[in-house]
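ARCHIVE CARD
SHELF: 3
SLOT: left
DATA:
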Amino acid sequence: DVVRLCSKHSWANNLAVLECLQDVREPDNEISSDCNHLLWNYKLNLTTDPKFESVAREVCKSTIAEIKECADEPVGKGFLVSCLVDHRGNITEYQCHQYITKMTAIIFSDYRLICGFMDDCKADINLLKCGSIRPGEKDAHSQGEVVACLEKGLVKEAEETDPRIQVSDECKKAILRVAELSSDDFHLDRHLYFACRDDRERFCENTQAGEGRVYKCLFNHKFEESMSEKCRDALTTRQKLIAQDYKVSYSLAKSCKSDLKKYRCNVENLPRSREARLSYLLMCLESAVHRGRQVSSECQGEMLDYRRMLMEDFSLSPEIILSCRGEIEHHCSGLHRKGRTLHCLMKVVRGEKGNVGPNCQQALQTLIQETDPGADYRIDRALNEACESVIQTACKHIRSGDPMILSCLMEHLYTEKMVEDCEHRLLELQYFISRDWKLDTVLYRKCQGDASRLCHTHGWNETSELMPPGAVFSCLYRHAYRTEEQGRRLSRECRAEVQRILHQRAMDVKLDPVLQDKCMIDLGKWCSEKTETGQELECLQDHLDDLVSDCRDIVGNLTELESEVSV
């Protein structure tokens, strides 16, 4: 096997031969079972061999002294090397780092060599039937499959209301730990490495391995037509693990480490708690950004990537799968790619086809807050692609990624510069933004002082029963047209924002939740037939005297504000 598969210059070095043999995975090039068996025993002996431990103790002397846990490990059990692999992020000694990197590649090729993994997950491997993936129990390659099978079990559990099989807490911890340890180098995620080998050549040939760069590159190409299904599948599982624990993304954990500490977003030593979830981290850091605090540009760049990722693939949010399963099957199946499913669900919520349950609507609203596309339209890939031509012509004076681009698109809603696809995507997104004032970044920035003074609002990612997100705008709007004598009024810049939004909402009744709610009957009665989109409000104004009193009040107030804007 060695002569057939490994280059001649590696023959003299056992470790080089070992690395060569464990990266072979062509069906016609399989290693003979005797050779496989020998490899497995050799690796097991390697990690438990006192000789290797003594090399580790020699090369890593000062490191072991620093890391107390490793210094306490018993000799000859293989625990010392595993412990150093666990802590390899903190190793500063060059030689020690080189040695441990070599050992890492060997240990990760087989889960039974990862310290404690087998003990923590033995029962789960049997429960999820992960052990019987390949009959050859000693086959080195099937090991990556076992870990992948456990990972799949873990993410599936989060997507079921009443999971049939539950992974034990110890094993969950171990799975996420292994995923975290393999987050910098994609060779260490054995299942993904083999599943995406050709795709890596195709899409990421020039991407240097290390620091999670290859994962990142593959994530960016996940929805390309030529991406293989098995690789796409492995990437999605990895992304779902990141959604459960952000540390599984090397670049995100590294870039945002100090910001997370600064804004107290992560609680140490609470594995798998809600604080580890990607959504919690995004909300906590976005809240800091919205309050005008400084978040490093590297961290903001990472956040942008992951917000786009969540918006692009609904299956990464277990809440959407749990709450919208029926709606997706009924209205939106087969649209999986590039954020189309989400937009299809948003369309259903807008009432354009069928109905959506309240849980699904809530899950969508939460996802829109986590991803916060109101702050940067590029996060919403479906919208970005549909509106590109309009942005190039109508909004080219605005810097790319500026929150005012959405406002500019709204201003051009029913003009000749607008294209139909863009109009649909824009209204689908605005429907949600109009139901939570915080999601309009500019409004929030200019009015947060007024809102806490007049409407008693809380922080960006806190909600209050007394003042639900939808009610805040109504409250601001009530204070917008108070006279001097009536007392507390809005600041000038907030008032300008409220007027901008009212002006934009007047184009589509569905963007004004209060109006839609109170004037539903009148809209059906007076304005259903002869009215084009965007003219419903005018129609209601024409029938002002015929409207029911609640609706008349709202239309009257809006008319008053409109006349102020045009003066």
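SLOT: right
DATA:
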Amino acid sequence: MTRGPPSFAEAVRVWLKVGLLGFGGPAGQIALLHREVVETRDWLDGDEFARALSFCMLLPGPEAQQLATWLGWRLHGIRGGVAAGLLFVLPGLAVMLGLSALYVVHGRSDWAGPVLLGLKAAVVALVLQALLKIGQRTIKDRAAAAVAGAAFAMMAFTTLPFPLVIICAGAVGWLTAKGGQGEAVPPAPPLKGQARTAFICLALWLAPIALAWLVAPNSVLAWMGLTFGSLAAISFGGAYAALAYVGQSASALGWLSAPQMLDGLGLAETTPGPLILVFVFVGFVGAFQTAPVEWAWGLAVLGGLMAAWTTFAPSFLWIFAGGPLFERWGRRPKPARALAMISAAAVGVIGQLALWFAIHLLFRSGQTMEVAGLLSVMLPDLGSLNVAALGLTLLALALTFATRLPMLAMIGVMVAAGVLLKVVGAS
């Protein structure tokens, strides 16, 4: 039995905490949400969390923000979903706008390096801890274990797209489902109410795009709204899958150069919240560089906000309009089994993300080898091992698994350790 929903004020404090500490990409953010909602506070059980995660992985856009929105909606309805979804993004958005402004004035900067090194080491430990706990609750039979392993292998060693991995997992579950009544099915949500909610969310999402085209047709803001808005509806596979499209568009439209895109990605790694906040950098810097001098700063801020709104607003549409239908549909035997297998696949996907993150943290260089356009293996350069990062990661693992230090204390220790290594010249 769970403790049940908290007060709205208590939940808001937790969503703000998640927004401030959500480093490490989707794997780290999902781990943090699981820790706060399931492990520490027992607001929802692990099965419901896993089912929600599987639903969010079926949606386009940033799955971690959608999961936060779903959790808030599940606990306190639409106002809870709005609070959770916004607070998940706003701290990182504010930081990204500030870093983008510093970038256009001063260019590249490595001032945050020591802090980030400690944070990233902490994220590796937290992700591994969450992976074990989510896996224990999700992997309930051999079929689920096989699906999790297959998903990990497909993501780590092939070029198969993420949506195909999820579709295959769902198909396995659907085809292997046994008969039965399934769980108790909640009443169907009123279609009229759902249609109204969907219309309001859709109108709010598209309003800035329409306004930009009405006020300034073919302007950079109008094209940014159209570019990021259309991408939000089709962007499966996370931030890196979407970056290829945005990078091509930004270059073709003269917003940013390829090196600037890489700089933006590096800055996005330093912020809490979804990695896809790099789009805020694209909007800010792209608008700044293409606007008349007298309007540059104002349009830069609007460009960053346009990118953020059109990227993240659709998540509220998917959750508020689709969540009640999912709650009803997802408890039937075949869909429930399909979602269980998608949850198992999610464990494999999180494992692959953790491996990817750890390799990029521990090694300064490497290469990806492809065979026949299908197999793909990431090979780190063993000679480029970052000894400081390795030491910090081992410390984070020890603090997490051996001492059971509270998360905030562990993160504080890791940040201090990263700064200390910089001071003594070891990083």
